[in-house]
Amino acid sequence: MAKAKFILKEPNSKVETLIYLIYNYQYKRFKYSTGEKINPKFWNKTSERAKESKQFKEYPEFNARLDVLENGINTAFRKLLNDGVQPNNANLKVELEATLSDKILKPNKLTFFSFVENYIEESKLNKKEGTIKVYNTTFKYLKEYAQKYRPIHFETINLEFYNHYLSFLRIEHNLSSNTVGKHIKTIKSFINEATERGYNNNYDFRNKRFKTIREEADTVYLSIEELQKIEELDLKASPRLEKVKDLFLIGCYTGLRFSDFTQIKPENIVSNNTVIEVRTKKTGQRVSIPLHKTVRSILEKHNNKLPKAYTNQTMNDYLKEVVSLAGIKELIETTITKGGKVEKKVLAKYKLVSTHTARRSFATNLYLAEVPTISIMKITGHKTERSFLQYIRVSQRENADKLLTHPFFK
């Protein structure tokens, strides 16, 4: 039996979230954006309608609109059957919108730019500051392109636009492949959200050739031996470098991001001072990490209260000084595709080290020590082994050395 129900897109949201109409029929599932939004605290999950609340005075009209939608999908389904047409998601959507055309206001027709502008403003309520910055930068490039070449509408975002826009970012702005890929990924997220809300019917952005470009970056990690060299440095004469050294080593032996390893507090040290337990800032995951002896020593040195960190950029500058003083100056050849051209440089290793090197070093060193991958992923937060293996830095030589201990080669 066909049945309609309404669900919230984000039932745990603290702000308004979209309502979807779900229609289960003939072992199929039809999903339709109602265009309606509600704060979950005003939603009755059992009745699938707004609660009768004084705080949400418009609930009668709101629920009436959902009733019209439910009656509309049932009418559309019956009409297809009566006309001898086998219902599917495509013709059900067409029939539903035809049924509703005179009974309910359709979502306002938004231009692509209007949607993006509204979406960025809306995202400020529930997304990180860094994400909003990425959104704004992508939007800036889109507006510049539209002004210089051609207007951008939902229906014009196709493979022709994609190829021309790639050239615009690569050649005119001399962006690296990974930066270009980040902007394409953001554009696709904008269009996907607009599609979910019923504003876009052009699916060219899902074509496999409309892809997010990614180039493996020349990132480095520091081995256990190199970390020991850093740990042995006597930097008491330079408090700023001493502080950076201590914080960086905490990151190298916990696998936490800069935003997390610089915020460790006494209450994060649990289980008789054997485990660090934190809720990560970026993902909100709670992770538990065994306390390494180096971490324990640094925490004791600061009475479990780590010194206040510099900004990430300042710390990266000072960190290069620390690693250089440790004598980590091996020459590394790097390549980057910028402006559509491959650029090669040879740099001393210390120049490639940043605060994020700590996290990569943690993951790579544990992997080389044959700690089970799943155990490392529990700390780093990687969802798949494939994404984890792309993250760690293991050279061909190190991989061969690791295999020497495998029974197959004995």
From TrEMBL:
CDD domains named among the record's database cross-references: INTN1_C_like
Domain Tyr recombinase: 217-404
Matches recorded under Pfam families: Arm-DNA-bind_5, Phage_int_SAM_5, Phage_integrase
Matches recorded under Gene3D superfamilies: 1.10.150.130, Intergrase catalytic core
UniProt key word tRNA processing: no
Domain Core-binding (CB): 110-195
Top-rank taxon: Bacteria
SUPFAM superfamilies in the record: DNA breaking-rejoining enzymes
Keyword set, alphabetical order: DNA integration, DNA recombination, DNA-binding
Stated family: Belongs to the 'phage' integrase family.
Protein name: Site-specific integrase
Organism (species): Mariniflexile soesokkakense
